[in-house]
């Protein structure tokens, strides 16, 4: 596997998060039990070792938007509406939203969105950096698949190590981050992928990655 696209088969939404009518009948024990499952689900997306692209259409709210934020890139179509409305119902974004949104857009913009619980249109999301690409209505999935295919054409070893270096180096000081990067570079520099990539470049042909 070289890249992943996360999309929805629902017509009106990518994902709207928790079912609040269901949760209205939850006991504390029910809430804790569900929390274990949802945290594992978010981590499953976030910890993918290969690049992940979200294809968003319609509503992506609360936990649904956090699934998209767990991906490396977010492609949305013109119908997309995104937001983290959790404080309006007495909780906080608990699927990584407080960290992932802040990483994407900085403290003040993330605070504005989380504290007000407001929703963004696709164009507003693109302008703020919440979304990476916006395409015409109905084109998010095909665009995301095309982007993933472009990514997947490159070295599998290089892609995994690049993502590892970027993710692990994000919240550390520069010196530590450079050590993380060096370790990832070493993992690629002495790999069969690197040998094939250089050889293919010299021979002016498409690489056949060993992976």
Automatic annotation (TrEMBL):
<keyword id="KW-0443">Lipid metabolism</keyword>
<dbReference type="InterPro" id="IPR014748">
    <property type="entry name" value="Enoyl-CoA_hydra_C"/>
</dbReference>
<dbReference type="InterPro" id="IPR018376">
    <property type="entry name" value="Enoyl-CoA_hyd/isom_CS"/>
</dbReference>
<comment type="similarity">
    <text>Belongs to the enoyl-CoA hydratase/isomerase family.</text>
</comment>
<dbReference type="InterPro" id="IPR029045">
    <property type="entry name" value="ClpP/crotonase-like_dom_sf"/>
</dbReference>
<dbReference type="InterPro" id="IPR001753">
    <property type="entry name" value="Enoyl-CoA_hydra/iso"/>
</dbReference>
<dbReference type="Pfam" id="PF00378">
    <property type="entry name" value="ECH_1"/>
</dbReference>
<protein>
    <submittedName>
        <fullName>Enoyl-CoA hydratase</fullName>
    </submittedName>
</protein>
<keyword id="KW-0456">Lyase</keyword>
